[in-house]
């Protein structure tokens, strides 16, 4: 398969994500081809893809989007209560004097708690999870095997805790874990690092954990003055928005049009609370270690350590 073509201009990104001429790429075909060729089980990966709205087109997409939006809105009160009731205390602990592991002590538990409110069961995923790597074109065989096993484990966990759910309802919850956790984990981790390093407080996240979204041309289409053939994969580089001079442009980290992020409102609400709580603490924070995990899809910190000298 040819490499995707990077699109970095604001207008180009808007066209690729917002126009009906571009459709989600066929993730199923990629995994099935590798699984068939090398003879290993990709059934859980394929089952998950069938429920992920970002992988679906037309009517199937509309139906999935509607179900997931309902799931998120039904849990809005719990999610809001978590943000107001628990996040300030979690940050107060993180910003007490000493050395802290930001992913382990704050980002992972915060993301798990928030997505748990959406799916109605307790999640304990961390930043090493492979469940969201199914968007990767380059993941190796052993990681694909582990991804399939992790997805099977997640399905069993949800079925055990919520045995009355239909297969579709379980699938929707797995889709939410795949779409919500690493996007939020990466965006929170990278944005908190930026704030600790002196980035100004803004309603928008300063950095994103979702550096790009791929789409395929349904027919020959012009973008930024170039007409691409049908089936060409274009890569909308959302990370290009990090350097936007108007911070409001960074709201587009959440995409555009038919597939625009359903977690945007709650993710921005969480960011407002986090910044308020950091400001309240008046802590002196130095980032002493920060590395990103090896990942060609999401941008997620692997190590994120801070030293708090005045809390
Ligand atoms: C700050 C963290 C987040 C970022 C940066 C982010 C970003 C994105 C982006 C770029 C898309 C694709 C948009 C497009 O193709 O036009 C997307 C889709 C989606 N996101 Fe998020 N997201 C975040 C958090 C969340 C959370 C917390 C949830 C769930 C509670 C969530 C649920 C979804 C869903 C369901 C979709 C698919 C919508 C569809 O295909 O119709 N996201 N997100």
Question: What can you tell me about this protein's structure?
Answer:
The structure is a single chain. The chain has 311 residues and is an alpha+beta fold. The protein has one domain: Cytochrome p450, CATH 1.10.630.10. Helices cover 48% and strands 14% of the residues. It is built from 10 helices and 9 strands. The strands form 3 sheets. A 4-stranded mixed beta sheet has the order 1-7-4-2, covered by helices on one side. Strands 3-9-8 form a 3-stranded antiparallel beta sheet. Strand 8 and strand 9 form a beta hairpin. Helix 5 packs parallel to helix 10 (264-281), helix 6 (87-94) runs antiparallel to helix 7 (102-119) and helix 8 (141-161) crosses helix 9. Bound molecules: protoporphyrin IX containing FE.
Strand content: 5-15%
Class based on secondary structure composition and strand pairing: alpha+beta
Quaternary status: single chain
Number of separate structural domains: 1
The helix count comes to 10
Topology, number of strands: 9
CATH architecture: Orthogonal Bundle
According to CATH, the homologous superfamily is Cytochrome P450
Shape: globular
Largest beta sheet: strand ordering: 1-7-4-2
* Broad CATH class: Mainly Alpha
Q: pLDDT below 50 for ≥5 consecutive residues: which ranges?
A: none
Radius of gyration: 19 Å
Keywords:
alpha+beta, Cytochrome p450, three-stranded antiparallel beta sheet, 10 helices, 311 residues, four-stranded mixed beta sheet, binds protoporphyrin IX containing FE, 9 strands
Question: In short, what is this structure?
Answer:
The protein is of the alpha+beta class and 311 residues long. The longest helix has 30 residues.
């Amino acid at each position: 398969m040819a490499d995707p073509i990077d699109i970095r201009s604001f207008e180009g990104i808007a066209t690729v994500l917002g126009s009906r001429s571009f459709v989600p790429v066929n993730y199923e075909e990629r995994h099935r081809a590798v699984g068939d060729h090398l003879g290993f089980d990709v059934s859980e990966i394929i089952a998950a893809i069938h429920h992920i709205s970002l992988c679906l087109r037309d009517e199937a997409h509309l139906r999935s989007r509607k179900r997931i939006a309902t799931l998120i809105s039904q849990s809005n009160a719990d999610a809001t209560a978590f943000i107001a009731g628990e996040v300030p205390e979690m940050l107060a602990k993180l910003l007490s004097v000493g050395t802290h592991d930001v992913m382990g002590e704050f980002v992972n538990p915060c993301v798990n708690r928030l997505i748990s409110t959406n799916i109605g069961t307790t999640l304990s995923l961390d930043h090493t999870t492979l469940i969201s790597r199914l968007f990767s074109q380059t993941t190796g065989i052993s990681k694909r095997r582990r991804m399939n096993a992790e997805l099977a484990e997640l399905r069993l966990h949800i079925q055990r805790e919520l045995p009355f759910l239909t297969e579709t309802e379980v699938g929707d919850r797995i889709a939410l874990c795949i779409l919500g956790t690493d996007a939020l984990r990466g965006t929170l981790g990278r944005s908190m690092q930026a704030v600790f390093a002196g980035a100004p407080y803004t309603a928008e996240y300063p950095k994103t954990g979702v550096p790009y979204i791929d789409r395929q041309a349904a027919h020959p289409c012009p973008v930024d003055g170039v007409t691409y053939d049908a089936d060409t994969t274009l890569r909308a580089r959302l990370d290009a928005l990090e350097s936007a001079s108007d911070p409001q442009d960074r709201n587009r980290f959440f995409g555009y049009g038919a597939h625009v992020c359903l977690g945007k409102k709650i993710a921005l609400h969480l960011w407002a609370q986090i910044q308020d709580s950091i400001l309240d603490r008046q802590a002196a924070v130095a980032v002493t270690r920060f590395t990103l995990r090896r990942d060609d899809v999401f941008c997620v910190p692997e190590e994120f350590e801070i030293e708090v000298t005045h809390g």
